[in-house]
Amino acid sequence: MATHFLTGAGSGIGAATAELLTARGDRLWLLARDQHTADRLREQFPTCRTVVADLAEPAALAAALAGPDAPARLDSLLHVAGVADWGPVGDSDHELWDRTLTVNLLAPAELTRLLLPALRAAHGHVVFMNSGAGLHAPPGLGAYAASKFALKALAESLRAEEHPHRVRVTTVYPGEVDTPMQRRLHARFQLEFDPSVCLTPQSVASALATVLDHPHDGTMSDLMLRPGG
Ligand SMILES: NC(=O)c1ccc[n+]([C@@H]2O[C@H](COP(=O)([O-])OP(=O)(O)OC[C@H]3O[C@@H](n4cnc5c(N)ncnc54)[C@H](OP(=O)(O)O)[C@@H]3O)[C@@H](O)[C@H]2O)c1
After folding, report:
1. Could you say which protein family the record assigns here (predicted)?
2. What is the CATH topology of the domain spanning 3-224?
């Protein structure tokens, strides 16, 4: 039975991933931003364990993960939580850049650092949920795209560094997915939302499971996922 540490399980892609992994009997550690969310997640996924930490405060992650109850072995660390705020560069203040880079980049870097011993112990797998915007930056999402471009760099350095420890690293780049984040962005861009042209969160979760289940003689290092057949 595999053990995974997952961020973002409260919504969208993360929730679908938690559902899929729970259904197949895997053990989950779920990061929740506050106690209320942790309680809700334990009700929804009764076999999971929770860690309360706000990814907007990466410096507090070490304390949240300290203690005898912290995971000693992890088969995977799944960085799914993220934020995306609309904002042309000319209108994006320091606060927007700070929040976006902190949650999408600095927190995953710190969480990875803290959980690497547990991942090395199990020859585990780090998966970063990136975005098409991490390869081609669209207008109106400069801070988000910058955070995802940098997340790609983090993944590539980590992959090379951890190869001797047999820790695998994958970046997943989905196109538009029908989640609360995507619906909020469409509203902000004043675009009509059509879920039928989006990936479902379940489809992205299924791709994540495929990445994890790949035989250990190889790694799916980068996975592009586009809507449509
Ligand atoms: N939707 C898309 O079209 C799309 C496309 C490509 C990539 N992605 C990426 O996929 C990932 C998941 O996105 P989604 O669409 O599923 O978004 P979502 O429905 O908005 O869910 C985002 C999750 O991140 C968590 N989160 C945000 N800020 C946090 C913080 N400060 N501390 C702890 N948790 C925090 C949220 O927690 P709460 O539940 O507590 O709010 C929520 O569970 C993101 O990395 C996103 O960039 C999405």
Report:
1. Belongs to the short-chain dehydrogenases/reductases (SDR) family.
2. Rossmann fold (3.40.50)
